[in-house]
Amino acid sequence: MKQSSFSRRDFLKSTAAVSAAAVLSQAGAVYAAGPEKIRLALVGCGGRGNGALNDCINAAKYLNIPVEIVALADHFKDRALKTAEQHGLSPDICFDGPAGYKKVMESIADVVLLVTPPAFRPNQFEAAINAGKHVFMEKPVAVDAPGARKIMEVGEIAKQKKLCVVAGTQRRYAANYRKTKFAIEEGALGPILGGAVYWCGGKLWHQERRDGESDADYMVRNWVSFTEMSGDHIVEQHIHNIDIANWFIGRTPKLAIGFGGRARRKTGNQFDFFNVDFDYDEGCRIHSMCRQVNGCYNQVSELFTGSNGTTYGSGPVKPIKAVDIKYPNFEQANGSEMVQEHVELLRGIIDGKPINAAKDVAESTLTAIMGRISAYTGQLVRWRDLTDAASNSPWYNLKLKPGLEEFENGTAKAPADDVIAIPGEA
Ligand SMILES: NC(=O)c1ccc[n+]([C@@H]2O[C@H](COP(=O)([O-])OP(=O)(O)OC[C@H]3O[C@@H](n4cnc5c(N)ncnc54)[C@H](O)[C@@H]3O)[C@@H](O)[C@H]2O)c1
User: Does the C-beta of 74 come closer than 6 Å to ligand 1?
Assistant: First the structure.
């Protein structure tokens, strides 16, 4: 395993050190630490948030880089306090409420992990980059086209500011997927002509509404049931497989035509299943299929066919005509692609060589959104409907509400449970 030769001298020379020194002078610093440490903060102390924080700490151990947690925020105070307690930290570094993330941005954190429901990501990402923070953000990064475009725009600002941005599309950090991508680039498959991507699995959790609970609290607790919060599961979960199609093919689809429906869910307004045909142009089509229904056949994978063979996303590549490929070693810290994400984030900071995944993850998020809009409406949706104002498409500016603004100003209203999009009418 390759270990970083991190030293304080190197760190002080790096871009990150400049930002660290700058934030030290900020008023309202939450925790005073020397710039020889990378200071971490977490927004969204739920299941994945705590997981991502541990992944980042493990990545720092792997690289032998000292880190320190300096700020935590969650909609619910007890969740932030629990994370602080788990790490033996003071409750003083905890913030709560829908706007608690703003305090994190005022803190001395160098790196902020954004792991709240996807609807909140665009505004929180913008706040983090405006505050000069390096960012890890979970997928998906938006629930609508304006949100995905904002991620792309802010991602460009991050580049100008030399800030690192890593996203939780973890297959891109997995050694087996990188090996397949490498083989494709070496021509082992020939041009990709088509394929299929699947996330067919069981239902996720859902929460019943509690007596007297506010709309905001109900939506936050039950976020995987509401499209306004999650983007629906084609966006929230199936993005992992769609992202592989975009990555391997090397471009986004030109259009989507799909359908879907709901039979089993009780709360929220998501569909149970989606079936979408993505047209990548140049004769290449990808069939996307996702379902969250218990008791059915499960399959989570990606399959591609090129003019010279086939492969699953995770390999092995099976060329018709043998191709001699000299694979490099693909690092996977602690055997985990989710630790590897943070290894590359921290290494980018320390080496002063920022990496930036904002565009890739925003495009994959938008691809999934395109499929969802087609399934909800029953219409053909073009990439340009979501990316080009000149398309005059009604979906270009369609912003799902409530969004973070409504949560922050106290006007968030939960959509009715079990009222869903009707294709042909929506
Ligand atoms: N990469 C992966 O494999 C993977 C796995 C699971 C989840 N995720 C992603 O991680 C994100 C979070 O999912 P989760 O499973 O941790 O959900 P979760 O419900 O367990 O956690 C989300 C947390 O965010 C908090 N929150 C809500 N609004 C907030 C706000 N305005 N400010 C601060 N905190 C707020 C909630 O109270 C909750 O504690 C989602 O985008 C999800 O898609 C990714």
Answer: yes
Atom of ligand 1 at shortest distance to CA of 121?
41
pLDDT at residue number 266: 85
- Per-residue CA distances from 351 to 131, 340, 358 (Å): 21, 16, 20
pLDDT at residue number 22: 33
b/e per residue, 231-270, with b = 16+ CB within 10 A? Answer: bbbbbbbbbbbbbbbbbbbeebbebbbbebeeeebebbbb
Beta bridge partner(s), residue 301: 198
Per-residue pLDDT tens digits for 165-184: 999 999 999 999 999 999 99
Q: What residues form DSSP beta bridges with 416?
A: none
Query: How high is the pLDDT of residue 250?
Result: 98
Distance 38 CA to ligand 1 centre (A): 23
117 lines ligand 1 (CB under 6 A): yes
Ligand 1 contact via 81 beta carbon (within 6 Å): no
Instruction: For residue range 90-125, list pLDDT tens digits in order.
Output: 999 999 999 999 999 999 999 999 999 999 999 999
| Strand bridging mode 67-74 / 94-96 | parallel
**Banded model confidence at residue 36, pLDDT cuts 50, 70, 90:** confident
pLDDT band, residue 30 (cuts 50/70/90): very low
Which has the minimum average pLDDT: 12-16, 18-22, 37-41, 57-61?
18-22
Which DSSP helix (H) or strand (E) runs through 312?
strand 309-312
Report the separation in Å between the CA atom of 220 and the middle of ligand 1, taken as the mean of its atom positions.
9
> Which of 48, 113, 217, 241 has the most ligand 1 atoms within 8 A of CB, as the residue to mutate?
48
> 114 alpha carbon to ligand 1 midpoint, in Å?
8
∠ CA(252), CA(255), CA(259), 5° rounding? 120
Residue nearest to atom 37 of ligand 1 (CA): 75
Q: What are the structural domains of the chain?
A: 8-171+337-356 (3.40.50.720), 176-328+362-408 (3.30.360.10)
DSSP-derived secondary structure letter, 362: H
Dihedral sign, Cα of residue 6, residue 10, residue 15, residue 19: positive
DSSP 8-state class, residue 184: H
